[in-house]
Amino acid sequence: MRRSQPRRRTSPWGDARRRRSLLQALPKTDLHVHLDGSLRPATLFALAKEQGIKLEVRNESGLQRFLDKLTAGVSLPTYLKAFDLTLSVMQEPQALERVALELAEDAHLENVRYMEIRYCPALHLKGPLKLHETVDAVLRGLSEAGRRFGIQTGTIICGIRHLSPKLSLELADLAVAYNGRGVVGFDLAGAEKDYPAKAHREAFDRVLRNNVNVTVHAGEAFGPQSIRQALHSCGAHRIGHGTRLREDPMTLDYVNDHRIPLEMCLTSNVQTQATPSFEEHPFREYLKTGLRVTLNTDNRLVSSTTMTNELDRAVETFGLSPMDVRQVLLNGFKSAFVPYREKGALLRRAVLEIDQELERVEIATGESERDLL
Predict the structure, then answer these.
(1) Which of 23, 195, 277, 287 has the fewest Cβ atoms surrounding its Cβ within 10 A?
(2) Active-site annotation, residues
(3) pLDDT in tens, 227-264
(4) Global model pTM greater than 0.85
C-alpha cells in the first residue's frame, strides 16, 4: 500500500510581493513618528532652495549616502545627527505646515488610519517662530490632511533630555494649553545616557495633573532603569521603544500586567544598535509574552522606512502569522491617545476591515491558520 505523502505547508501570505500588497492594504496606526525625521527628500531640497539654505548634501543620492553613514548600526547620538540637516529647513511656519501635511498624506497612501506625530517645538525657533506658532503650523498641516485624505492624527509635544528641565516645563505648559485642540500627549526624547528622565519630573507632574497623556523614550539606548524612571517618576502611559525591558523581568511583568504599550520601531532599533540585529530584536518574544507591542516607523526619512516596511520586516524576520499581524495592528488602535468612545469606533472599523483582508489570505492560499498549526 502506497503511503500518503505529508501535506506540504505553504506560507499563508503567498509570495513576498503578494504579502507586501496585503500588508499595505491593512488599516494601520503609527504612534511613534518624528516630524523632523520624516520629510520627503524632494521637500528637503525644495525648502532649502526656497529659504536660501546651503545643505551639506546636493541631491537625493547624496542624501541617502549621508543617511546611510549615520544609520549603519552605530549609536543613537550618531543617528540623531541627521536631525541637524532636517531641522535647518524647518524654522518657518510654511515649512512645518507642508511637512506635516505631506507626512500625513504619505501615511494615508499606505492606509495608516491614525497617526501621532511628535516633535519638539523648541527646536524650530531659529527663525521667526514662537513656541505656540510651531504648534499652530503643524496643526494646520494635519487638519488639511484630515480634510483631504480622511486620516486622523494627533500631535505629541516632546521635551529633550539634554535640554533644561525649565524648558521642558514650558513645553509641558504648551501641551496643556493645546490639550484637546490637536495635542494628545507629552514625551521626553533624546539620548538617555547621562540625561535621566527624573530630572524633568516637574514637567511630567504638570501634564499629568492636567490630564495630558504621557509617553517617554526609554530602554532604547540605556537599560531597564530608564524604563522604571519613565514609569514611576514620569507616569508614562506608553513606552517609546523599550527594547531592553527584557533585562528586568519584574518590570516586564509590571508593564504587561498594567497593559502599558511599547512603541517598537524595528528598523531604527537596529540602526541605533538598540538591538544588534533584526533577528535578535525582542519584538517576537514580547508579543508571545502578551505585551502590548505596537509597530511604528520612528523616522520615515532618516530610517528609510514606512509602516508597510516595518510590518513586512516583522513578518519576514519573525514568521508572523496573519493572526499575529492582526494582534499587532489592533494593539496600535487600542494604544492610541484618543478618547475611549472615539477609540472604540476606530477599533471596530479596524477589526472589520482587518478580518475581511485576512479572509482573502485564507481564500487565496486555500489554508486557514488552523490548518498550519
Answers:
(1) 277
(2) 220
(3) 999 999 999 999 999 999 999 999 999 999 999 999 99
(4) yes
